[in-house]
Design goal:
The protein has 391 residues and is an alpha/beta fold. It folds into 2 domains: 2-239, Aldolase class I (TIM Barrel), CATH 3.20.20.70; 247-390, Phosphoenolpyruvate-binding domains (TIM Barrel). 38% of the residues lie in helices and 16% in strands. The protein contains 14 helices and 17 strands.
């Protein structure tokens, strides 16, 4: 969902759908659209459900990521033929990966996909989509290094400008935003810029609320922006039960789709959320009526409660997980879970010290997250604990 830099009353919510993702495989999702016909149909169906923008990658028929112009052309033509109002956003991410050879890191090894920047925007020049993603990150992704040098980014941005396509600036870390600002100052990127803040990618922005607040603070004043996070087990960054309802509805729709097409599914899919935004403390009964479990994001929750980044030495002494305010917040979640008969766990490394672990056990927590080195001392302390007396 995009956030426009304008008065709140005049903002519009714009829904974007990414129907294939970047590296998703058929093994991960049997219903993955692969052919241009399938990808176009998924985008058109999403538009009928309310999506205004289709962010598109293309595939070979076997599901492998593709950079073939013919695949892009057929996909875009099929969409435009049926729905001329759907905004098309084509990726330019593929073609930027380098895998150093084990024998000589100067030589490209298997898995390298690095291409000339003009090759990476060939489909943009030919098809002239409304939006084209422009990755600004240079970072490790698995065993490969994604390389987007300022020189290559400039070449691609100029090609987008000539094609009349609006760059969507994908930023994975704070340095990417600084690069974007430099390109704006140089006139390579036109204002107002459109940013996509990507979180949850290993070695990039972590998928936390504090990250999003920090990243937004770095953006130019007139920027339009959107954000998303990569998650696996729980819905992070939930600030309101309505957000949980929306996310769960999407999950249920996907399960229904898989069930309809005969795919084997678990007997029960447990859906939970992270409690890391303080506003959720005042909606716990509503959350437990919807969620199968909640997990307290202890680091983020305490930081937001005290408006203190524990890594900032100037305010770190305000980060006090054993203060009455923090302990009451933790107890609120545990007590609500007990009322509803739903499990509550604790994430983060707050329980890695024996004293904090004792306090959490006394408050009702029975599943704690620890650093490996802390398991022995904490386990020894908890095994000797009289929980009733501690409570």
């Amino acid at each position: 969902m995009t956030e426009a830099a304008q008065p709140k009353k005049s903002r519009k919510t714009i829904l974007t759908v990414a129907v294939t993702g970047n590296l998703t495989t058929i093994d991960q999702h049997p219903g993955l659209p692969c052919t241009p016909e399938q990808i176009a149909k998924a985008a058109l169906d999403s538009a009928k459900a309310g999506a205004a923008i289709a962010h598109l990658h293309v595939r070979y028929p076997d599901g492998r990521p593709s950079m073939e112009l013919a695949h892009y052309r057929e996909t875009v033509d099929r969409i435009r033929d049926k729905n001329s109002e759907l905004i098309i956003n084509l990726t330019t991410g593929p073609g930027g990966r380098f895998v150093p050879s084990k024998d000589d890191p100067k030589i490209a090894g298997p898995g390298t996909s690095a291409q000339h920047p003009l090759k990476r925007v060939e489909h943009i020049v030919e098809l002239k989509p409304d939006i084209a993603t422009l990755d600004l990150n240079t970072m490790w992704s698995g065993t490969s290094c994604v390389i987007n040098s300022p020189q290559n980014v400039t070449v691609m941005a100029n090609a987008m400008k000539e094609a009349g396509s609006k760059p969507e600036l994908e930023v994975f870390d704070s340095g990417d935003i600084q690069l974007a600002k430099a390109l704006i100052e140089q006139g390579v990127l036109e204002e107002p810029p459109l940013f996509q803040i990507v979180t949850g990618i290993r070695y990039g922005f972590p998928g936390t609320v504090e990250t999003l607040v920090y990243a937004k603070s770095l953006l130019p004043q007139n920027a339009h922006w959107a954000a998303f996070g990569i998650g696996r087990m729980m819905f992070p960054m939930v600030a309101d039960v309505g957000e949980f309802d929306q996310a769960k509805a999407i999950l249920e729709r996907e399960l229904t789709h898989l069930r309809k097409h005969g795919h084997a599914l678990p007997d029960k899919v447990f859906v939970g959320a992270m409690v890391e935004v303080p506003s959720l403390l005042f909606q716990l009964d509503e959350m437990f009526a919807r969620a199968d479990f909640l997990s307290v994001g202890s680091n983020d929750l305490v930081q937001f409660l005290f408006a203190a980044d524990r890594s900032n030495v100037r305010v770190a002494d305000r980060f006090d997980p054993l203060s009455p305010a923090a302990l009451r917040a933790f107890r609120m979640v545990a007590d609500a879970g007990a009322r509803h008969g739903k499990p509550v766990t604790l994430c983060g490394e707050l329980a890695s010290r024996p004293l904090e672990a004792v306090a959490l056990a006394a408050l009702g927590y029975r599943s704690l997250s620890l650093s490996p080195a802390a398991v022995g001392p904490v386990k020894a302390t908890v095994l000797e604990l009289d929980v009733g007396a501690a409570r």
